[in-house]
Write a structure and sequence with these properties.
Largest interface: A-B, 53 and 52 residues
Largest sheet of chain A: none
Radius of gyration of chain A: 19 Å
Helix content of chain A: 55-70%
Order of helices and strands of chain A: HHHHHHHHHH
Oligomer: homodimer
Shape of chain A: elongated
Number of strands of chain A: 0
Strand content of chain A: under 5%
Distance between the termini of chain A: 60 Å
Chain lengths: ~210, ~210
C-alpha cells in the first residue's frame, strides 16, 4: 500500500502556523519558530509566501475557518432539533478541547485580539471567518424572521469564541458545557417554528 | 486649585501595559514599547517589576479586572430586573467599544488566548479574573438553584469575552448588542424567581 503523499513544505508551513496560533496567538507565532516546527527549508517561507507573515497567517486562518462547515453539518443534521444540535456542538467542543490538552484555542479568535492598528488584511480575514460561520448556522435556526436568525447565529459564534477564552484560562472545557446548556435552553424557549419531528402547532413567539 | 498628583512611574507602566494588552494582546506588548508609552524612565521597569514582564502583565490584568465590580453594581441595581440589567450592560459595552475607537478588547481575554505553555502565573491570573467576575454576577441572577446561577453567570462572561473577539474583528459593537439581546431573552424566559417589582407568583422552572 502506498502511503499518502507527505504534505508539501507550503502545507507544512500553513499547518504549523495554524497550530501555533491556536496555542499562543500571534505572540507565540514567530516566523523562525514556524519554520522550525514545520520542518520546511528555511528558504521556502518567502518563496511560498512572498508577502511574509501576513500572508502566512491569513492562509492559516482560512485553513482553520474551512473546518467549521463540516462541524455544522455534523451537528445540525436533519434529525436533531437546533436546541439539541447546539448543545451537542458545544459538548463536543468541550470534550475535544480537553482531549487535545486543554490548551488549543481558536486561531481566528486569537488573531482577532492580537490585531495591530495596521493589520487590516488580518482583520478582514477574521471578520470574514466569523461572518461565514454565523452564515452557516443562520438558516438552521428555528425562527421565522431572518434578522432574528442572524442575530442568534452571531450569539452562537460569540459564545463559541468566548468559551475558548474562558476554557483556555480554566484549562477545562467546562465553559463550553455551560454555554451549550444555556444556548440550548435559549433556543428551546424562543423558537417560533415547529420542531421538525415533534408537534405541528406553531407556538407563539416569546419576546 | 491643586492638580491631582501625576501617576507614579509604576502606575504609568501598569496603565500602559493594560492599554497595549487591550489593543493587541501579548503580541503587541513589548517591554520597550511599554516603557516608551508610559514615559517612565527605562531603568524603572526592573526596579518596580523585578520579575519582569510576567509581573507587569499580571498586575495590569489585576488592574483591568478590578474595574468590573463597578460595572456590575451600575447595571445590576436593585430596581432593574436581571434580564434588563444584562442587556444594558452589553449595550453599554457596545457603545463604549465604538466610542473609544472600536479596537480595544479585553486585556484578560487577549492574554488568555496568547498564553504560552509555561505561563502558569498569567493563566492563573486570567482564570481568577473570570471566576471573580462570574462570582459577582451569580448572586444577582433570577434562579433559586445556585448551580443554575453559577452556570448562567459563566455564560454571561463567555458572551462578554466572545463579543470582544467578534467586535474586534468587525470593528463594530454590534456583536455585543446581539449577545445582550439574547442573554436578556434567555434570562426572561428561564427565570424561576419572581421579578423584583412585577408579579408575585412563582413561575415553574423551565427545563
Amino acid at each position: 500500500m502506498a502511503d499518502s503523499p507527505s504534505p508539501s513544505p507550503r502545507d507544512r508551513l500553513i499547518a504549523a502556523t495554524e497550530a501555533m496560533l491556536r496555542e499562543s496567538g500571534m505572540a507565540g507565532t514567530g516566523i523562525k519558530d514556524v519554520v522550525a516546527r514545520s520542518g520546511a527549508p528555511i528558504g521556502s517561507l518567502y518563496h511560498y509566501f512572498p508577502n511574509g507573515k501576513t500572508q502566512l497567517v491569513t492562509e492559516s486562518l482560512e485553513r482553520h475557518a474551512a473546518k467549521f462547515p463540516a462541524l455544522v453539518e455534523r451537528f445540525f443534521d436533519e434529525k436533531r432539533p437546533p436546541a439539541a444540535a447546539v448543545r451537542a456542538l458545544f459538548d463536543n467542543a468541550a470534550d475535544v478541547f480537553e482531549e487535545i490538552g486543554a490548551d488549543k484555542g481558536c486561531a481566528v479568535g486569537a488573531v482577532s485580539l492580537d490585531l495591530g492598528a495596521n493589520d487590516t488584511v488580518l482583520q478582514s480575514a477574521c471578520h470574514a471567518a466569523f461572518r461565514d460561520w454565523a452564515g452557516l448556522i443562520e438558516p438552521r435556526l428555528p425562527f421565522s424572521d431572518r434578522e432574528t436568525r442572524r442575530s442568534c447565529s452571531v450569539m452562537i459564534i460569540v459564545a463559541l469564541e468566548g468559551a475558548f477564552v474562558l476554557s483556555r484560562a480554566a484549562k477545562s472545557g467546562d465553559p463550553f458545557r455551560d454555554a451549550g446548556r444555556w444556548l440550548s435552553r435559549m433556543l428551546a424557549a424562543s423558537s417560533d417554528t415547529p420542531p421538525r419531528r415533534a408537534r405541528k402547532s406553531k407556538p407563539r413567539t416569546k419576546r
